[in-house]
C-alpha cells in the first residue's frame, strides 16, 4: 500500500554480494559495521515530461539502478559521508549546522537536502550523527533521477537513524520540498516514484493530493533506455528553472485574460481547474490568448498591469532577474498537450486494444516532437538517438527526464530486442569511443520496486 512506511527487509548478506561488499568497505573505512542499509531507485519517465511542476499527472516507473547507503548511527553529532566511487570526495559536517551550497551542486549536498528535510519536519534538536557509505549505480546527469534518488535515500536513512516513521507519501512530499534547498524547482515525480514504485507495474502519479495508480504495461514490448552521453545537471544550469518560470508566467497571463485571481494562480493546472474545461479546450484558450512570439518582461508587465519592479520582486525568482524574454505560448501548449497524452497512455494500457503498442508508440513520438519543438528541451544527440532507435525497430521513442542531454526511452517489440540493442550500439555508440566507455549506456528495463531498508538477518 502507498500509505505504508517503506519496508525493512531482513536479508542474508552472503546472498547479496553488493551489500556484502559494501559492508566490507564500510568496516575498512569506519572501523565498525553498518547497522542497516537503505536503497532508493532511479526512474524512467515513460511519458509526461515537464508537467509535474505544472500540477499534471505523469507516468514513470522505477528502474533497477539505485542509490544504496550503508549506515551506522553514532553518538557524536557528526555525519561522515563516503562514496565507493573515489571521484566523489569524502565529506563530514555537524548535524546541527547543515549548509547546502546552491552554487556547487556536489554529491554530498543532495544527501544534506534529504537529511535537512527530515530534521526540519520533526524539529529534531539533537539529531543522530551517522557514518554513511554510498554506492550508486544510476549514471549521473543522465535524466534517470540520480540526484532525487540520493535525496530520497538520505531522507530514509535519517528517518531510520532517528527512530522515526512516516508513510511513503509523506516521505515523497518532504523529499520533494527538501530538494529545492539545492535550487531545483522540481515537481515531485522523481521522489514520488522512488518511494511509491512497485515491482512489475508503472505508475500514474497525480499531485495535490499525491496518489499513485498502477499502470500495467502491455505485453509484447520492452522499454529500453539509451544514454545520449551528454550530461545535464538540472541544478547547475538555468534551462530547467527558466521553463518552470515560463509556465508560471503563462499561468498568470491566461488567468488574467479569463478574469481569474491571477496573483494566486501558480500552475497551469490551476487555470484548467478554475475554468472547469478539458485539456483540449485549454489548448484553444492558449491559441486565443498567447502569441507565439517571445514576450519581453515589459510586455508581461503591461498584460498584467504591474510594474517591472513588482514582476521582479513578486513573481520572478532570484536567479531569473536577468532573463529578458519568455516563450509562454510554446510552453503552455506543450504542457496541456503532454498532460492529455499521459491520460491517453494510461487509458490505452488499461483498455489494451489490439493495436495498443502502435497507439502508445505514436504518443511517445508526439511527446518527443513537443519536447523538441515547443519546450525546446532536447539536443542534437537526443534527436539523433531517437531517430536511430525508431530506425532499428522501436515502436516509440522519446527523450526522458529533464532533457538537454541524458537518456531516451524506447518501446521495442520483445522479439526484436536483441537485434535492436546490437544495431543501436553499432549506430550510436561504436562510432564514438567516448560513448562506448559510458557504463549502462544501453539497457532494457522493467518496472522495479521502491525505496527499502535492509537489515542483516
TrEMBL record:
The keyword Transit peptide belongs to this UniProt entry's keyword annotation: no
GHMP kinase C-terminal domain boundaries: 354-429
Reactions catalysed: N-acetyl-alpha-D-galactosamine + ATP = N-acetyl-alpha-D-galactosamine 1-phosphate + ADP + H(+)
Known EC number: 2.7.1.157
GO molecular function: ATP binding; galactokinase activity; N-acetylgalactosamine kinase activity
SUPFAM superfamilies: GHMP Kinase, C-terminal domain (SSF55060), Ribosomal protein S5 domain 2-like (SSF54211)
UniProt entry keywords in alphabetical sequence: ATP-binding, Kinase, Nucleotide-binding, Transferase
Domain Galactokinase N-terminal, chain residue ranges per copy: 25-73
Pfam family, one: GalKase_gal_bdg
Enzyme class, first EC level, given as a word: transferase
GO biological process: galactose metabolic process
GO cellular component: cytosol
Superkingdom in the source lineage: Eukaryota
GHMP kinase N-terminal domain segment(s): 109-196
Entry annotated with the keyword Transferase: yes
Subunit-structure text: Monomer.
Recorded family membership: Belongs to the GHMP kinase family. GalK subfamily.
Protein name according to UniProt: N-acetylgalactosamine kinase
